[in-house]
Amino acid sequence: MAALLCRQNWAARVRVSKGKKLVTYEAAHPPHYIAHRKGWLSQHTSNLDSEEGAAERLVEDVFIRRFLHGTFVGLLAQEPVLKRRANVLIICLVLFQNIAPAKIYFLAAYTETLFSHFYKCPVKLEFQTVSSMLVYKYLCAPGPHDWMKKPLPSSASWNFPRL
Amino acid sequence: MAAAAWGGARLLWGRLRQGSGTLPGSYAVRVAPKQYLLQNKNLMWIQFSLGTDLHTVFQSYGNMPLVSISDEPDTLYRRLSVLVKGHDKAVLDSYEYFAVLAAEELGLSIEKVYEPPRKIERMTLLKSVHIYKKHRVQYEMRTYYRCLELKHLTGSTANVYLEYIQRNLPEGVAMEVKKTKIEKLPEHIQKPIWDTLPQLFPVSVVLDKICSHATPVIVDGVTSEKEETCKGQKTYYNHQAEGFPPPPPPPPPEQLGNLASDYFLGAYPALGKKLHGLNRTATALGR
């Protein structure tokens, strides 16, 4: 029902376009599925009734996501999940195995130290590594010239990013 | 605050482990059927916080003694009300199961567990940055509640239970705690005042006399409330219902008139003169 009404809504939706897209479970579901098929990426209490601090948490979250995106370049398999539990900030990451484990540990400790100095609270980074992307959906749309391409033999593989 | 809480927790917990007979008589003892919380294997799998050391309740502090004894009596709570709020009802369901199980393991008496109705905050905002007033977007934020009420706790029990509950609070869940304390009545109200001051007349008898003599007092056309209270009750203060000792029998009426005007109505001379007969007491009441 909601899908029928959402033809002109573009919020947090991955649409089909020319090329091939690999979409994770979290990105494939539009926002009206939150609390039904989807969870929350940032969990804190300031959006509850008669609780304060929503704006501060939001600004912190934006900074943390930009920082992680820049520190773990090309390593994030999913959006990081931020949890706040009684002054402790817990960041949950799913990383690829592109880089040697020693470097991943260094980056993790680096982010933990910097964040704990920025926000004056204990910060814990919990990460796990994944060998390949966790794909939920493939979005492939043929381009205007695809009709000319012959079907591939079974041994060949498409040029998917980071498989 | 944490140290005091731990002191209270250790006091009760250490003594309970030694057995209820070792506690001095002034402490209210509630012996749980299963006294050893940590050794109860059923509870081990309920820990919600994974991978962090936030959920260790009783760490070994090394040289710190397990039991601290203080002479002051423990505070008593009639009711401990724990209200939990969250965005996700499933999380609150599991947290309620955990809290109720913890309370039962500790032997606390649960008064009731209920679910207050949810609150939804809705916003209708403009979809576009500039113009397009007819196209809006709607958001809502839902808050679900769960309330757990425990009755008849001691201060140290409440501290232990709340500490355990709060350490295992999931992320995105907020808690409000209300405690109803039981205190002793202050000394100056323990006995009624007419027992301690024998020379003065009881106020009830004087007011009886005033009410029985006076005609209805009219203030600006509205009948005052004094008329109803005087006609309906015999005494101004309802002694029998509250269990106070009955007042001494009233003195004979001859003595009363002078004393009333001298003592009780000394502060309000205008009131004393104008009570007989039809009078307006607007001036007497100090308007």
TrEMBL record, chain A:
* Gene Ontology biological process terms in this record: translation
UniProt-annotated location(s): Mitochondrion
Species name for this entry?
Alligator mississippiensis
Q: Which terms in the GO cellular component ontology are assigned?
A: mitochondrion; ribonucleoprotein complex; ribosome
Taxonomy, top ranks, is: Eukaryota, Metazoa, Chordata, Craniata, Vertebrata
Record InterPro entries = Ribosomal_uS3m (IPR026146)
User: What name does UniProt use for this protein?
Assistant: 28S ribosomal protein S24, mitochondrial
Signal peptide residues on this chain, from the entry's feature table:
none
**Underlying gene:** MRPS24
Q: What broad class describes the main subcellular location of this protein? A: mitochondrion
The protein's UniProt keywords, in alphabetical order, are: Mitochondrion, Ribonucleoprotein, Ribosomal protein, Transit peptide
- One Pfam match, by short name? MRP-S24
| Record family assignment | Belongs to the universal ribosomal protein uS3 family.
State whether keyword Mitochondrion applies.
yes
Q: Does the keyword Ribosomal protein apply?
A: yes
TrEMBL record, chain B:
Q: Which Gene3D superfamilies match?
A: Ribosomal protein S10 domain
Specify the superkingdom: Eukaryota
Per UniProt, the keywords (alphabetical) are: Mitochondrion, Ribonucleoprotein, Ribosomal protein
Q: Which residues cross the membrane?
A: none
What cellular component terms from Gene Ontology apply here?
mitochondrial small ribosomal subunit
**InterPro entries recorded:** Ribosomal_uS10, Ribosomal_uS10_dom, Ribosomal_uS10_dom_sf, Ribosomal_uS10m
Name the SUPFAM superfamilies on file.
Answer: Ribosomal protein S10
**GO molecular function per UniProt:** structural constituent of ribosome
| Subcellular location(s) per record | Mitochondrion
> Which HAMAP family does this entry report, sorted A to Z?
Ribosomal_uS10
Instruction: Name the chain's protein.
Output: Small ribosomal subunit protein uS10m
